[in-house]
From TrEMBL:
Region: Disordered, residue numbers: 54-74, 184-205
InterPro entries: Tscrpt_reg_PadR_C, Tscrpt_reg_PadR_N, WH-like_DNA-bd_sf, WH_DNA-bd_sf
Pfam families: PadR, Vir_act_alpha_C
Source domain of life: Bacteria
Domain Transcription regulator PadR N-terminal: 8-85
Domain Transcription regulator PadR C-terminal: 100-175
Taxonomic classification: Bacteria, Bacillati, Actinomycetota, Actinomycetes, Micrococcales
Natural source organism: Xylanimonas protaetiae
Protein name listed in UniProt: PadR family transcriptional regulator
Length: 205
């Protein structure tokens, strides 16, 4: 999801300025995608350039904000912007091109570059993924599942499912490399390592 589409979705509710959009975006996505204020205003400028948003005329607004600075300009959707926001809700997220995954690339290279200890690479990654999984699970226990906390809870679910899938994939890589080492002459054997399973971390959920 781009910040651009996220802003269009938020502006379909009510006019907002750059600072408020940044706060709402971070709050509603559970703080997973932090924005700096420069990104927020740059995105607004591009949306205005493309005719998707426009400043809200507010003759009654004071020239300065309560904090003393210039009163921030608020933006609203144009008809084209509202149509774009509606179209975004209606179309699925396409998965045509796989995202660049550093871990997949690293392991793909590890099985082809001579002299790499693949078993050690897999084990170090498994340890790191299980650490992240424990952290996500602990945060999930403390997250509320209604009101504003629901967004963060759902983001944590996504992170937990992804980490569990990654551990399963690492197990598969280890098994596949071990099997290949038995059939490829001159290959170094890969030792299977006993490790905690992802299900061990579910107890606290």
């Amino acid at each position: 999801m781009s910040i651009r589409q996220g802003f269009l979705a938020l502006l379909s509710e009510q006019p907002m300025g750059g600072y408020q959009l940044r706060q709402e975006f971070e709050a509603r996505t559970g703080g997973t995608w932090p924005l700096n204020i420069g990104q927020a205003y740059t995105t607004l400028q591009r949306l205005e350039r493309d005719g998707l948003v426009e400043p809200v005329p507010d003759d009654a607004a004071p020239a300065t904000s309560p904090k003393g600075g210039p009163n921030p300009e608020r933006y609203r959707l144009t008809e084209a912007g509202r149509a774009e926001a509606t179209a975004w809700w209606q179309r699925p997220v396409e998965r045509n091109a796989p995202a660049r995954d550093e871990l997949a690339i690293k392991l793909a290279l590890a099985v082809t570059v001579h002299g790499v200890d693949i078993g050690a690479v897999v084990q170090r990654q498994r340890t790191e993924t299980l650490r992240a999984l424990r952290d996500y699970t602990r945060l999930k226990r403390d997250a509320t599942t209604d009101g504003p906390g629901l967004a963060w809870s759902l983001v944590l679910d996504s992170l937990i499912f992804a980490a569990e899938a990654e551990v399963r994939w690492l197990d598969h890589v280890e098994t596949a490399v071990l099997r290949a080492s038995h059939t490829r002459p001159g290959s170094a054997p890969v030792a299977a390592v006993e490790t905690p399973r992802p299900t061990d971390t579910k107890a606290g959920r």
